[in-house]
Amino acid sequence: MPRYRLDIEYDGTGYSGWQRQTDHPSIQQAIETAIFKFCGETTLVRGAGRTDAGVHALGQVAHVDLEKSWPVDTVRDAVNAHLLGAGERVGILAANLVDDGFDARFSALKRHYIYRIICRRTPLVIEKNRALWSSRMLDVEAMHAAAQSLVGLHDFTTFRSTNCQANSPVRNLDRLDVVAGATEGLIEIHASARSFLHNQIRSFAGTLRLVGAGKWSTADVEAALAARDRKACGPVAAAAGLYFCAVEYPDPAG
Description:
By secondary structure, the protein is of the alpha+beta class. The chain has helices at residues 27-39, 72-85, 140-147, 200-212, 218-227, and strands at residues 3-10, 46-47, 56-65, 90-98, 110-119, 132-134, 152-155, 170-180, 186-193, 242-248. It is built from five helices and ten strands, in the order βαββαβββαβββααβ.
C-alpha cells in the first residue's frame, strides 16, 4: 500500500483546526473528503501537528496510505481540484511517495512556527484574521531579549493550556527570536522545537507583547517561567497570528 507525504498550506480562518470533529469543519476532514472524491477511498490523513482553530499553515506535513499507486502529480492536482471545487481554503503544495516507515508526526525532528504582529493605529483590514493587531508600536529588541530566557530545556507549565494533554510540561525550545518584519510595523516571532505544548507559542506571544509594551521586563518573564503556574502567564495571543511554517525530517539518503 503506497504511502504519500503531503505538504499543505491553509488559511485556518473558519476551521475548527486540523483535527476532524463531528460538528465543525476541519482541515483534516477537508483533505480526507477531497481524497475520497478523487479515488473513492476512505482514508486517515495524519498530520505533523494539530493546529488550533484559526491557526494557519504554510508548511504543514501529513501522510496518507492509498490502496492504488498514483503518479504524485496526479494526487496533488486531483486533490487540489476537489478542494477548490468545495470552496476549501486548503492547498496541497506537493505529494511525494515515501516508505512505510515515514510518519508525519513521529518522524519529525523539528517544527517551525511564526507568530505575526502588526503595529499601527488603524485596525487591520487586509490582514484581519492573519495577524495580531497592536494599536501601539512594540519594542522588538526588548521582546527578543526577554524571549531568550525561554530558550532551552524548561518546565513550561506556565506557558501551556490547562487542557494540554501532553504527559510532561518539559520541552526543549531551540529558538525563540523576535525580529522586525519586511514591512513597516510587522513583528515576527520565530519559534522552533521538536514539539510544542498546547497554546505554548500563543502564550509566548501574549507574554512577549507585554514586554514590548513596556508592561513587563525580562525579569518578569523569567519569574513567570519559574512559577510553573498557568496563572503567571500573560494573555494568550489570538490564533490568527500563528503560522505552522515547516517540519524537518531525517535525510532519507542517510
